[in-house]
């Protein structure tokens, strides 16, 4: 960030060195997104030997876990698959639902893993769901409060509150990590034990889920770096 200076011609511009933290987070997020897309595309071309679709895989896992009441619905898009704990609905995207690829099987099984977490009252999942309203409010209020603190003679109390509210997103992403990793672990265990995939297909599906998990890790890192930047800029009462 380049900020005009009022200290003469020699210091016409001021470069904020902490902005590099934002750039690092952006690069990490872009790399993770590109990696998961390329990995998914690669194994989406690999047909499974058993020719089971993503929808059939999800239904197999749900029924085996005693979750016949959880319905499976279609949703448009690519990698928009998700499980809704409130509705007890597992939604599979166009690219996953009817595909017989290794990638589709991995994604469908992962979402079914979330349904099992819900049924077993998996604590991190419950905690994540409980704090969603708080995080949404914090996200909306953080920037305005931070700006107000800066405008009112750098009121440190308001600035600190703004930073803490902004940090709620980072906390949410931290809680999300065990939820996602655990869902993938459950998925891979079932895929292998039930022989939904066999041979090298198992490792290929694992690579897809690992790549997807890296997007959550990247998001957490990027969020942490942004919070760190705010602390470095304003946390100590510095006046810009």
TrEMBL record:
Highest rank taxon of the organism: Bacteria
Protein name listed in UniProt: Zinc metallopeptidase
Keyword line: Membrane, Transmembrane, Transmembrane helix
Species for this entry: Atopococcus tabaci
PANTHER family linked: MEMBRANE PROTEASE YUGP-RELATED
Membrane-spanning ranges: 12-32, 130-152, 158-179, 213-234
Pfam families: Zn_peptidase_2
């Amino acid at each position: 960030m380049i900020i005009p200076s009022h200290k003469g011609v020699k210091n016409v511009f001021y470069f904020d060195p902490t902005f590099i933290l934002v750039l690092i987070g952006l690069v990490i997020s872009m790399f993770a997104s590109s990696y998961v897309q390329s990995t998914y595309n690669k194994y989406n071309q690999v047909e499974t030997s058993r020719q089971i679709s993503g929808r059939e895989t999800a239904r197999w896992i749900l029924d085996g876990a005693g979750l016949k009441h959880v319905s499976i619905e279609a949703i448009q898009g690519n990698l928009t698959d998700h499980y809704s704990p409130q509705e007890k609905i597992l939604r599979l995207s166009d690219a996953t639902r009817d595909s017989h690829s290794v990638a589709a099987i991995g994604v469908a099984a992962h979402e079914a893993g979330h349904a099992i977490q819900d049924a077993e009252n998996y604590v991190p999942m419950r905690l994540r769901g409980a704090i969603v309203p708080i995080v949404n409010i914090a996200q909306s209020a953080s920037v305005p409060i931070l700006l107000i603190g800066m405008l009112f003679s750098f009121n440190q109390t308001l600035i600190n509150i703004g930073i803490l509210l902004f940090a709620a997103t980072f906390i949410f992403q931290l809680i999300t990590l065990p939820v996602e990793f655990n869902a993938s672990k459950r998925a891979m265990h079932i895929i292998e034990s039930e022989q939904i995939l066999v041979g090298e297909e198992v490792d290929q599906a694992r690579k897809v889920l690992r790549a997807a998990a890296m997007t959550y890790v990247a998001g957490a890192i990027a969020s942490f770096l942004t919070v760190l930047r705010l602390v470095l800029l304003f946390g100590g009462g510095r006046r810009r």
